Amino acid sequence: MTTATVPAATPRGTASPFAAVLRTEARLFRREPGILFWTLGFPPVLLVILGSIPSFRKVDPGLGGLRLIDLYVPILVLVALIVTGLQTMPPVITGYRERGILRRMSATPVRPSALLIAQMGLNGATALVSALVCLTIGRLAFDVKLPQQAFGYALALLLTAAVALAIGALVTALARTAKVASAIGSAVFFPSMFCAGVWLPVQNMPNVLRHIVEATPFGAAARALGQAAAGDWPAWSHLGVLAAWAVVLSAAAIRWFRWE
Fold first, then answer.
1. What pLDDT, on a 0 to 100 scale, did the predictor assign at position 127?
2. In a domain, 1, yes or no
3. Distance, CA of 66 to CA of 83 (rounded, Å)
4. Highest mean pLDDT out of 13-22, 96-105, 239-248
5. Confidence at residue 152, expressed as pLDDT on a 0 to 100 scale
6. Domain that holds residue 63
7. What pLDDT shows up at residue 14?
8. Is residue 108 over pLDDT 70?
């Protein structure tokens, strides 16, 4: 997976330095086909592949009358957030720090925090767009119902996005180089995919394993999104797990983050 390593240009003569940084980072972001594929393209493509399997479109009494494809739409919504938090954002920001770009920015009107906020905003927005694409494909191509509890779904999705970006910020804080950030992200990537239910939906896991997975951020997210998609308000225990992880991970990232 490729990552952007081109330094953000320091804007001059603009009324809003942050807006200029955001525009620059957005332009660089669009030039990275690898990032765009893994965040915007991969989850929808995987959804189409899974939906093309006949067994995924058959009603399963063991799933409460649902189909496997019904369960996998919320799961693939999570995939874009996992990719963003663990694979896309950390190497870019760590690369800026490694090359001294953040240190040089600290001596200009553009604070390094503007770059961090711009990167988190761009990556978070891209992941949310991917989620909307997955919901649209699921509805139009495979007759998957849209989330029946829209407000609960939106709340769970926003909390999950906060957790994913907080994980990315923490990886960025701990990694000294872009290579180390990629290595940490890869090490955490596959366990996160498992907890999200990519290989086995969380609700189908054995009881003990399910309870353990539901205590992880993406396991709780999978359950919360699944409940909201089915028309129920997400369990407060799952929302609480998401909120707690977001706070703890964000605090840790702030505590250990270094601009140099």
1. 86
2. no
3. 27
4. 239-248
5. 94
6. 17-256
7. 44
8. yes
Task: Give the pLDDT band of residue 6 (cuts 50, 70, 90).
Answer: very low
| HEC string for the chain | CCCCCCCCCCCCCCCCHHHHHHHHHHHHHHCCHHHHHHHHHHHHHHHHHHHCCHHHHCEEHHHCCEEHHHHHHHHHHHHHHHHHHHHHHHHHHHHHHHCCHHHHHCCCCCCHHHHHHHHHHHHHHHHHHHHHHHHHHHHHHHCCCCCCCHHHHHHHHHHHHHHHHHHHHHHHHHCCCHHHHHHHHHHHHHHHHHHHCCCCCHHHCCHHHHHHHHCCHHHHHHHHHHHHHCCCCCCHHHHHHHHHHHHHHHHHHHHHCCCC
SS percent in the chain: helix, strand, coil, step 5: 75, 0, 25
For residue 151, the tally of other CB atoms under 10 A from its CB is 11
Residues 6+ apart with CB under 8 A from 187: none
Domain count, the chain: 1
More confident of the two residues 259 and 13 = 259
User: Does 92 fall in a domain?
Assistant: yes
Euclidean distance between CA atoms 231 and 52, whole angstroms: 25
- 249 lies in some domain: yes
Tokens of 88: 């896309």
Q: What percent of the chain has pLDDT over 90?
A: 35
